[in-house]
Amino acid sequence: MDTICKPSQTLPWVQLTLEAMISVTNILIFFHLIHGGLALQLLLLYASPTLPSG
User: Fold this and answer.
1) Is residue 5 part of a domain?
2) What does the alpha-carbon distance between residue 35 and residue 29 come to, in Å, rounded to a whole number?
3) Which domain holds residue 17?
4) In this structure, what is the dihedral angle of CA atoms 13, 19, 25, 30, given to the nearest 10 degrees?
5) I need a labelling partner for 27 at 20 to 30 A (CA). Which of 18, 35, 36, 42 fits?
């Protein structure tokens, strides 16, 4: 019974840790994309002021 109960007890922890890691990485990627996008827009604005902002 112990060998059957142990996996079911450890599985939620693994799932929770995996979900937490995925959510953290998603948030980091999200912020990185936003920051990169803003930096790209600023670079485009400063590099080519004659082009209309799309």
Assistant:
1) yes
2) 10
3) 1-48
4) -150
5) 42
Q: In this structure, what is the dihedral angle of CA atoms 22, 7, 5, 9, given to the nearest 10 degrees?
A: -20
Position 3: which residue type? T
Q: Cβ(53)–Cβ(45) under 8 Å?
A: yes
* 40-50 pLDDT tens trace: 888 788 777 66
CA 51 to chain centre: 32
Residue with the two structure tokens 């937490």:
20
Q: Is residue 54 part of a domain?
A: no
53 in a structural domain:
no
Q: Classify residue 50 by its DSSP letter.
A: T
- Per the structure, the count of domains in the chain is 1
List pLDDT tens digits, range 10-35. Answer: 788 899 999 999 999 999 888 888 88
